Amino acid sequence: MAVVLGTNSGFVSSAPSSDPHGAVKDNDYSANVSKDTSPVGNYKVTEMGWYCSYYSSETTFQLGIYNDDEGVPGDLLYYTDGSDSVTSTGWFKVTGLDWSLTSGTDYWLAVYVVDTLNPTKGDWATSGGSGFDSKAPGPLTSLDPYNGGVVQDSDAMYAVYALYEEIPGTNLKVNIGDTWKEMSAIKTNIGDSWKEVAAVKTNIGDTWKEVF
């Protein structure tokens, strides 16, 4: 196994479980970020994780996603609360996320680990990726702000992933500017509050058929 973009680094359709067996890199007191392009379509991130290849003492980590600002990490768009613990080597993840993605867009996936006496390390590869950078050493106490400069390695990558899943569409389209756009949701106003419609059906031949 190795660190592979789309398998155990970057955006993935299934969560990795095996050791990437990549080169090791310190992750203490630093933010390591890896660039990838989101899948084309209507998707969201439901889980993020990273691989700890060396562990000495319990610590905590934070995961997040930056936008791309002309080839370097920009604004921190999403992040976990930083309370999740590292207790051994292996994959560590945060589930239950609901982070929307823009189709086919560059992002930077990040992991920050709180400092320990002996460095906590993760896996990375120096080729085959879309870009890697590291904000280290401190004073860095969280992912925000990153304030990075020139990217360290334009084709490297880190073993940090974002699991995505498709957001169901409505099967409905609207014409805007002579272009058909898919409607991602229909909402109705109830009690002065907009509620998303969960399903729409139409009656054909005295039988109800589901639209979405």
Structural description of this entry:
This protein is mainly beta and 212 residues long. It has 2 domains: 10-166, Jelly Rolls (Sandwich), CATH 2.60.120; 173-210, no CATH class. 0% of the residues lie in helices and 52% in strands. It has no helices and 19 strands. It has strands spanning 10-12, 23-26, 30-37, 43-54, 59-69, 72-79, 84-86, 90-100, 106-113, 121-125, 132-135, 157-158, 160-166, 173-176, 179-182, 187-190, 193-196, 201-204, 207-210. Strands 1, 2, 4, 8, 10, 12 and 13 form a 7-stranded mixed sheet that branches. Strands 3, 5, 6, 7, 9 and 11 form a 6-stranded antiparallel sheet that branches. The protein has a two-stranded antiparallel sheet with strand order 14-15. β14 and β15 form a beta hairpin. It is elongated and about 70 Å long. The model has no long low-confidence stretch (mean pLDDT 86).
